[in-house]
Design brief:
Oligomer: single chain
Largest sheet: 6 strands, antiparallel
Number of strands: 9
Strand order of the largest sheet: 3-2-5-6-7-8
Distance between the termini: 64 Å
Helix content: 25-40%
Order of helices and strands: HEEEHEEEEEEH
Mean pLDDT: 82
Length: 136
């Protein structure tokens, strides 16, 4: 009976460690390429279709985005890019899509998703600040 209890206790501890290790906080969002190589920033509304809400957005949004709370859940399935999205276009022809629920980087061959979650309200407030009032 003691052996079974030890096995169950060890399994419970292992489950707790795995669960806790799957979630961590990164203080800032890290862009996939240098911010110096950004040629344009756009704000999109992505649903069934993609709509450009703001083109040639002030690059200040990139540093403000790094000030938002960010969580990463490594064991979560990636959600789809939807809602308000920041598109960062690089000189290399690659681009990055950043939404409140995940991000994706197109490296010229493949779209690679990343598990990152911003506070939904903070993200929406930041993005709508850079959209013309008639577009929202």
């Amino acid at each position: 009976m003691k052996g079974l209890f030890r096995i169950l206790a060890a399994a419970l501890c292992l489950t707790a460690v795995i669960t806790l290790c799957g979630c961590f906080s990164d203080p800032v969002y890290r862009y996939k390429e240098s911010v110096d190589s950004v040629i344009s920033v756009q704000i999109l509304r992505v649903g069934e279709n993609e709509e450009i809400l703001a083109d040639n957005v002030d690059a200040g949004i990139l540093s403000e985005l790094q000030g938002l709370k960010l969580r990463r859940y490594l064991n979560d399935p990636v959600t789809i890019i939807a809602g308000l999205v920041i598109r960062v276009n690089y000189e290399s022809g690659c681009y990055e899509l950043i939404s409140a629920q995940c991000s994706a980087y197109y490296n010229g061959k493949k779209l690679r998703y990343e598990h990152c979650y911003f506070d939904w309200d903070e993200f929406e407030v930041l993005v709508t600040k850079y959209i013309a009032p008639a577009s929202v």
